[in-house]
């Protein structure tokens, strides 16, 4: 598949770095356009002028650093969709990596960069930008269609009201001038002509609407619930490459639906007709005349009832979303490749850590009796353990969102999280009973992180209690201990991952990220000196009690 040569803006205060980067990019991507800037202000101007596919951005620059440049780019609605990849010599600066993500950066590569990694990142960013621009253009186009149609309907309504007003005036003239038959006939003639003009205008607007729906891959349909008879616009058959007379019954369409999607389609229609769903709304695959399957987004609602309030008619719209689905699949494949690259990197690091550990053990044996050397080697051993913990942390972080969320019993998942650590003589009480939440499969690790936080930082914790309270809209799960508590000035900072005060490897930052996947928020509300209290708010629809659907 052919791709256009990418446009890249590189921002670095080191001219030699820019020259080397341009040489690499033009070699890896023949025909690529590379524009360079040696300061943030010039770089932002280049991005605004060239609309690149990706921005390669150094962090440490005089004046405006890379973080500020990225913040200004992401704050500009015309530039925020352009991916930013940070390039820096700060290999192990976790704080800088977190900062880069917070200001909106899409990726982070250390200098000297790995050519294969940089090439893969540039390709991924180009695809991400292209997918984003296509989605934005489609939304803009559909918004224009809606605005045009709204304007047309307003005009039609004005014309109709005008006609009704004229008819009323004609009736008044008829009451006042019963003997003026000729005048009445003239008025009636004028009214007939006005109605003809209105009908002609309606026909024109109907043609316009059909053209707009055709351009937007939209089609209307209507089904008789009693007979299964279907009428639809020609566009619906045309989107599949069939003649309109190919379809007259609901089953004519369902016969073409992919076997894996058919039951879902039928259930969505049944649920709407039975009153279980307010609308009929479903995405499915349907076979075109060429034999290929296209993705449709179908939606509709009941528009007619029999005298006994039985659904009689359903009307709806269908849209061909095949292009959008292909874009989603492409993005998913890109993420899979990035995950593979990350996994390979972790394996290499783990192998080298094992080798380095072996050398340290050998060095300790050779240095037996030399306490100062052994103490130095032990510090190196400690540093290796920290590196290994970081590698394991990155694996857990990558797994977040990789599997779909599931309904999980809060008490059970808290107990599972507790089973991985030793709490000694600390008493615990879990009072959530049958409460279930819809969360990422890593929720167990989040619970483990809360227990580890109390044990590690609570100093004199003797009791941990987990309970909940609910309102019609949300449920709040409270995790509290009787330790030293959290100072007011640190209540927000404890959820940030920083290189300063080192938390447990699965600290509160990791806990918050896991919960956020399904919209669960967490905050610390305890009183300093009396214990920590974490409130996790679960939105409506993401909690239930066991046995409820």
- Count of DSSP-assigned helices: 14
The second-level CATH architecture of the largest domain is 2-Layer Sandwich
Q: C-alpha Rg, in Å?
A: 33 Å
> How many β-strands, per DSSP?
18
Q: What's the CATH C level of the largest domain? A: Alpha Beta
Q: Give the neighbour order of strands across the main sheet.
A: 2-1-3-4-5
> Low-confidence parts lasting 5 or more residues at pLDDT below 50?
499-505
Largest sheet: 5 strands, parallel
Fraction of residues in helix = 40-55%
- The CATH topology of the largest domain corresponds to Beta-Lactamase
Shape, per Cα inertia axes: extended
Quaternary structure state of the chains depicted: single chain
**CATH H-level homologous superfamily name of the largest domain:** PAS domain
Overall average pLDDT: 85
How large a portion of the residues is in β-strands, by DSSP E? 15-25%
Separation, N- and C-terminal Cα atoms: 46 Å
Pairing-aware structural class of the strands and helices? Answer: alpha/beta
Number of domains: 4
Description of the molecule:
The protein starts with 6 loop residues before the first strand and ends with a strand. Mean pLDDT is 85; it is low at 499-505. The longest helix has 62 residues, at 115-176. The protein has helices spanning 15-28, 40-50, 66-75, 94-102, 115-176, 181-215, 234-239, 250-254, 259-273, 322-366, 371-399, 410-418, 443-457, 508-516; strands at 7-11, 33-37, 54-58, 84-88, 107-110, 218-224, 230-232, 280-287, 293-305, 311-320, 406-409, 427-430, 435-439, 463-470, 475-481, 521-524, 533-538, 543-545. It is α/β, with parallel strands linked by helices. The protein has four domains: 7-113, Response regulator (Rossmann fold, 3-Layer(aba) Sandwich), CATH 3.40.50; 140-324, Beta-Lactamase, CATH 3.30.450; 341-399; 406-545, 2-Layer Sandwich (Heat Shock Protein 90). A hairpin with a 5-residue loop joins β6 and β7.
């Amino acid at each position: 598949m052919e791709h256009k040569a990418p446009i890249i803006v590189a921002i670095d205060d080191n001219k030699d770095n820019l020259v080397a980067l341009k040489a690499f990019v033009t070699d890896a991507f023949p025909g690529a356009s590379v524009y360079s800037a040696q300061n943030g202000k010039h770089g932002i101007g280049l991005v605004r002028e060239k609309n690149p596919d990706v921005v390669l951005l150094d962090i440490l620059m005089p004046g405006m650093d890379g973080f500020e440049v990225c913040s200004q780019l992401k704050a500009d609605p015309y530039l925020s969709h352009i991916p930013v990849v940070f390039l820096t010599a700060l290999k192990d600066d976790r704080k800088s990596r977190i900062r880069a993500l917070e200001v909106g950066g899409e990726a982070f590569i250390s200098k000297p960069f790995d050519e294969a990694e940089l090439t893969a990142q540039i390709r991924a960013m180009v695809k991400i930008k292209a997918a984003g621009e296509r989605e934005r253009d489609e939304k803009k186009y559909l918004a224009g269609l809606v605005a045009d149609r709204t304007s047309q309907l307003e005009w039609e309504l004005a014309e109709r009201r005008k006609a009704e007003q004229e008819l009323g005036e004609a009736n008044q003239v008829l009451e006042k001038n019963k003997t003026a038959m000729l005048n009445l006939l003239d008025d009636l003639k004028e009214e007939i002509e006005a109605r003809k003009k209105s009908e002609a205008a309606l026909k024109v607007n109907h043609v316009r609407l059909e053209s707009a729906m055709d351009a937007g891959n939209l089609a209307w349909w209507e089904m008789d619930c009693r007979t299964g008879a279907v009428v639809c616009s020609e566009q619906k058959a045309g989107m599949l490459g069939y003649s309109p007379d190919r379809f007259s019954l609901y089953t004519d369409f369902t016969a073409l639906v992919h076997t894996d999607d058919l039951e879902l389609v039928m259930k969505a229609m049944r649920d709407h007709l039975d009153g279980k769903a307010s609308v009929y709304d479903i995405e499915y695959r349907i076979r075109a005349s060429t034999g290929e399957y296209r993705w449709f987004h179908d939606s509709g609602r009941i528009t007619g009832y029999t005298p006994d309030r039985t659904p009689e008619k359903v009307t709806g719209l269908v849209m061909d979303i095949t292009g959008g689905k292909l874009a989603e699949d492409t993005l998913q494949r890109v993420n899979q490749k990035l995950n593979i690259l990350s996994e390979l990197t972790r394996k290499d690091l783990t192998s080298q850590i094992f080798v380095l550990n072996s050398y340290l053990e050998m060095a300790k044996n050779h240095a037996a009796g030399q306490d100062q050397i052994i103490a130095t080697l032990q510090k190196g051993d400690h540093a290796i353990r920290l590196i290994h913990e970081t590698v394991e942390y990155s694996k857990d972080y990558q797994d977040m969102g990789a599997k779909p969320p599931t309904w999980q019993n809060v008490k059970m998942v808290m107990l599972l999280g507790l089973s991985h650590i030793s709490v000694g003589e600390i008493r615990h009480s879990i009072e959530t009973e049958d409460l279930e939440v819809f969360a990422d499969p890593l929720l167990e690790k989040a619970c483990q992180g809360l227990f580890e936080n109390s044990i590690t930082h609570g100093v004199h914790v003797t009791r941990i209690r987990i309970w909940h309270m609910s309102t019609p809209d949300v449920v709040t799960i409270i995790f509290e201990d009787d330790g030293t508590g959290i100072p007011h000035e640190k209540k927000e900072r404890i959820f940030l991952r920083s290189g300063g005060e080192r938390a447990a490897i699965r600290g509160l930052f990791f806990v918050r990220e896991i919960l956020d996947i399904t919209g669960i928020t967490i905050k610390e509300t305890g009183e300093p000196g009396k214990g920590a209290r974490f409130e996790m708010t679960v939105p409506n629809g993401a909690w239930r009690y066991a046995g409820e659907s």
